[in-house]
Design goal:
It is an enzyme of class 5 (isomerase). Pfam families: Rotamase, SurA_N. This is Chaperone SurA. Strand 1 and strand 2 form a beta hairpin. The protein starts with a helix and ends with a strand. It contains 16 helices and 12 strands. Helix 7 crosses helix 16 and helix 8 packs across helix 16. It has 3 domains: 143 residues, Orthogonal Bundle (Triger factor/SurA peptide-binding fold); 128 residues, Chitinase A, domain 3 (Roll), CATH 3.10.50.40; 107 residues, Roll (Chitinase A, domain 3). It is α+β, with helices and mostly antiparallel strands.
């Protein structure tokens, strides 16, 4: 799944407002976030953009104080995450960026030229738009890399779930889920929080708009897009969601129910039918070179270019170079081969390469969070309802479940440990 894509389509205009805003007189720092800042113009521009988008879609918004608090929190969290991407040295090249923008345009049923015209009509510069897309992908890649390290999937878990999938006839039913989270901690008045949750459910059952209520009340990760998690199979949802969905129909309001971070309310806004289990597996091989104090990015790139030249000239075989020089020990012992895998199991930049490369062609050197690579796709195959496909599917399901859970926890931990200082009328209050 392109984690950044859903974020961009849903949030881009909000998140990009700060970098696209026109100059504001007497701009000032509103929040200090670690070594960075959120400017007052960032907040103002994001609110204006939200209001414009709400007007276009006839979406009502909460009171300004509530809206400002939600936007401010989102900008703080995004600043923290972007600082992590910079710390990791994540860089998004122009080719990757161009492809992302093409996908955004396609999502909006526009060509790239039409997208530029649409942005200009909204007062958004295309150069600023590109840089904001680059930033969002960098944030997503850093988040993916750091959260992956927290995920541990046991072979017994994969085996158990693959057995279950083999016997289920409705494993591919998808749900369009909306979510409201009321966060609690040790200092929260829990009876008051439960009363608030029950009042929200009562209003929803009386016909209040779920998206508006989510924007107003939710502290969950999708609050500013009306709590919309998009289309998910039960196996892809956070476990606390999946456990609550049984035989409910479209339109059902579920909750409130409790988890370790607070109370939750769900709505099944839509459902859609079964899909067959069919995956494309790729057998690829690669050579990994890691940078160090004595090997720069340019040096690693030149080294891999030389390896590719020697392979293509017939001077040496790919597997021999991988065995001698690749710094991925597991694959180096197999002449660089990674075996048949679904591309989703790889980090985004590597996934992109194995998806677009013709079979038998060596890629240009490219960088991921692990280092610099060249990769060659040896073969592709379609797998439909075989044991291997079910095992891979089970792994992906478990990974997606745990990723969503761990990503939310990671963001909360990052936010809690960050230095955040709100600057108000020349006085500062630290949190």
């Amino acid at each position: 799944m392109k984690m950044w894509k859903h974020t961009l389509v849903g949030f881009l205009s909000v998140l990009s407002a700060s970098s696209m805003a026109a100059p504001v007189e007497l701009d000032r720092v509103a929040v200090i976030v670690n070594s960075g800042v959120v400017l007052q113009s960032d907040i103002d521009a994001a609110i204006v953009t939200l209001e414009n988008n709400a007007s276009k879609s006839s979406q009502s918004l909460p009171d300004m104080d509530v809206l400002r608090e939600q936007v401010l929190e989102k900008l703080i969290v995004d600043t923290i995450q972007f600082q992590e991407s910079e710390r990791l040295g994540v860089k998004i090249d122009d080719n990757r960026l161009d492809q992302a923008i093409q996908e955004i345009a396609k999502e909006r049923e526009l060509s790239v030229d039409q997208l530029q015209i649409s942005l200009a009509e909204d007062g958004i510069g295309y150069a600023s738009f590109r840089e904001q897309v680059r930033k969002e992908i960098a944030i997503s890649e850093a988040r993916n890399a750091l959260v992956r390290r927290r995920i541990n999937i046991l072979p017994a878990e994969v085996e158990s779930l693959s057995t279950q999938l083999a016997t289920e006839t409705n494993a591919s039913v998808q749900y369009r889920i909306q979510h409201i989270q009321l966060r609690s901690d040790d200092n929260t008045d829990k009876p008051a929080l439960e009363k608030e949750a029950n009042e929200i459910v009562k209003k929803l059952n009386q016909g209040e708009d779920f998206a508006t209520m989510a924007i107003s009340y939710s502290k969950g990760p999708k609050a500013l897009v009306g709590g919309d998690w998009g289309w998910l199979r039960k196996e892809e949802m956070p476990t606390i969601f999946a456990d609550q969905i049984t035989t409910q129909a479209k339109g059902a309001i579920i909750g409130p129910f409790r988890s370790g971070v607070g109370l939750h309310i769900l709505k099944i806004s839509d459902t859609r039918g079964l899909e067959t289990v069919a995956v494309t597996e790729v057998n690829a091989r690669h050579i990994l070179i890691k940078t160090s104090v004595i090997l720069s990015d340019d040096g690693a790139k030149r080294q891999l270019q030389e390896y590719a030249r020697r392979i293509e000239s017939g001077e040496i075989k790919f597997g021999e170079l991988a065995e001698q020089f690749s710094q991925d020990p597991g694959s180096a012992a197999q002449n660089g081969e990674l075996g048949y895998q679904t591309p989703d199991l790889y980090v985004p930049e590597f996934k992109h390469q194995v998806e677009i490369l013709p079979t038998g062609q060596i890629s240009e050197p490219f960088k991921t969070v692990h280092g610099w690579h060249i990769v060659e796709v040896l073969d592709r195959r379609e797998v439909d309802k075989t044991d291997t496909a079910l095992t891979n599917k089970a792994y992906r399901i478990l990974f997606n479940r745990k990723f969503n859970e761990e990503a939310s926890a990671w963001i909360q931990e990052m936010r809690a440990s960050a230095f955040v200082e709100f600057v108000e009328n020349d006085e500062a209050e630290a949190q």
